[in-house]
Design goal:
Blueprint (H helix, E strand, L loop, with lengths): L1 E3 L6 H4 L4 E2 L8 H11 L6 H20 L6 E2 L2 E2 L1 E2 L9 E2 L6 H14 L7 E3 L4 E5 L2 E7 L2 E4 L3 E3 L20 H9 L3 E2 L4 E8 L11 H5 L3 E3 L13 H15 L4 E4 L7 H5 L1 H9 L9 E10 L2 E3 L11 E3 L4 E2 L12 H17 L9 H4 L15 H11 L6 H13 L7 H16 L23 E3 L7 E2 L1
Parallel strand pairs: 1-7, 11-18, 17-19
Antiparallel strand pairs: 2-6, 3-4, 5-6, 8-9, 9-10, 12-17, 12-20, 13-16, 14-15, 15-16, 20-21
Length: 467
């Protein structure tokens, strides 16, 4: 296993809200399926959703057997509810450290296996491809041979100026897969979390949706409520952006001060301590918040076993597009998707016995994209363009400007992958002339039946396909 910089730096590590699973007495997998399909706004792959909710309970039980410690009420698992869920089905660990507990459990299990080794790297290069078959990967100038490759490089939040994601979330897997010739699906659908801490000098730390589930309210700077806090994330994010514009303010307020003393500190210890570190005592003061890029519904197109359109290349987690999330992810489904489809991809890779192609170093036949030198577009410039033109509210003029800037500009070496991904987002968002889920066009504010299809973009394929 090769990990970028650290196995302990990932979006999973920072996931607070929880993991959704139909395990409580008053829940059913069919209800979880319905809620997921509804959130996906007509673009979910039904087979993928059914697989997720059907196999989710067994995946959680296996985690518990491996030592995962989820919050309990007495001896029973404790479930909470988040926006757009019809039942209490969200499991938490240590209040607001669910992703960290899952990552800890999986790492400990993997480290106990004699045939698993870990290796870190600081720079990512490209996949090695021979006749649409993946032969391995190139790290710096070193080719690493592999019978099969799984991309699990996480999200792409750092394509944007404001994001809740860790710094390693730069879309590396999507960029590498695209350059290798794999199909990228629905990349225009980026979920912006409504409530990230918005303080000068502080990271855009996620203030979990579970806070609103426990009664937190959104106020403008005059102390007035302006939206339904439990509406879907995209609706709340747009409401906040519009309120900020209406009142000419850089943020709004998330207020939980009406809850009883000690509640926030006990229920959300990590969030409470982080905010306190930046001078915000959530039990006494409302937190300044604004939306930030949070999760990519699109990614490398896969089937239910994680197979991409390139032989012997697999993808899982946020890097992949299984079709589970459609146009908008249902809260707390992402950790479950990683568990269920990550396991499926691993099983498929074990049985992938197709002949292994030779490495570039041995044959010279493998096509590897060249690395551009230092250029005109820094990472900060790319992030600013993406935030301004491809953010929460989009229109044709700004998307076309972003596309032109990305096509004309040469990225600095460290910005190669974000530049690639930002360009894909701009192109696909420009082509999707409707509003659906997390993709909102002010010039096309309604959904259009002719676009109730997946966008597919592929290197050297010409136009974007919708199918």
């Amino acid at each position: 296993m090769v990990a970028k910089e650290s196995l302990h730096e990932s979006s999973s590590e920072y996931a607070q809200g929880g993991i959704a699973v139909a395990l409580s007495d008053d829940d059913e997998v069919e209800l979880h399926e319905q809620d997921t399909l509804h959130a996906g706004d007509g673009l979910c792959d039904r087979a993928a959703v059914h697989t997720l909710v059907e196999e989710g309970p067994a995946a959680i039980q296996q985690l518990i057997e491996w030592g995962a410690e989820f919050d309990r009420s007495g001896s029973r698992l404790a479930f909470t509810r988040e926006a757009a869920h019809s039942r209490n089905r969200i499991l938490h660990a240590h209040g607001d450290s669910t992703g960290r507990e899952i990552a800890r459990t999986l790492y400990r299990k993997a480290a106990s296996l004699p045939n698993v080794t870990f290796r870190s790297y600081s720079a990512i290069s490209d996949l090695l491809v021979d006749d649409r078959r993946v032969a391995g990967a190139l790290f710096h100038d070193e080719p690493i041979e592999a019978r099969a490759v799984l991309l699990a490089t996480g999200g792409l939040g750092h394509v944007f100026r404001n994001t809740t994601n860790p710094e390693v979330a730069t879309g590396d897997g999507v960029a590498m897969a695209f350059r290798a010739g794999a199909e990228i699906q629905d990349i225009e659908f980026v979920q912006f979390h409504p409530t990230a801490l918005h303080l000068e000098g502080a990271p855009r730390f996620l203030l979990s949706e579970a806070l609103r589930g426990e009664g937190a309210v959104l106020l403008n700077l005059a102390g007035e409520r302006f939206t339904d806090e439990m509406a879907p994330r995209d609706v709340v994010a747009r409401a906040i952006v519009r309120e900020m514009a209406r009142t000419d303010s850089p943020h709004v307020l998330l207020d939980l001060t009406h809850r009883e003393a000690g509640f926030v500190r006990g229920r959300f210890p990590r969030i409470y301590e982080t905010c306190l570190r930046y001078g915000i005592d959530l039990e006494r003061r409302a937190a300044p918040v604004a939306p930030a890029a949070h999760y990519a519904m699109g990614g490398v197109r896969t089937d239910l076993e994680g197979r991409t359109s390139l032989a012997r290349l697999y993808a899982a987690g946020e890097t992949a597009c299984t079709g589970v999330h459609g146009a908008n992810r249902l809260a707390s489904n992402s950790l479950l998707e990683g568990l269920v489809f990550g396991a499926r991809a691993a099983q498929a890779m074990l049985w992938d016995d197709r002949p292994r192609p030779e490495l570039l170093a041995q044959t010279g036949d493998v096509a590897v994209a060249s690395t551009p030198g230092a250029g005109t577009l820094s990472l900060a410039a790319i992030q600013d363009i993406a935030w301004r033109c491809c953010g929460i509210l989009r229109d044709a003029e700004e998307l076309a400007e972003a596309r032109r800037l990305f096509e004309a500009g040469v990225p600095a070496a460290e910005a190669r992958n974000p530049h690639q991904v930002a360009g894909l987002i701009a192109r696909c968002a420009e082509a999707r002339r409707e509003s659906r889920g997390a993709h909102y066009r002010t010039d096309y504010p309604n959904a259009c039946a002719s676009f109730a299809r997946h966008s597919i973009i592929q290197k050297d394929a010409g136009e974007i396909a919708f199918r």
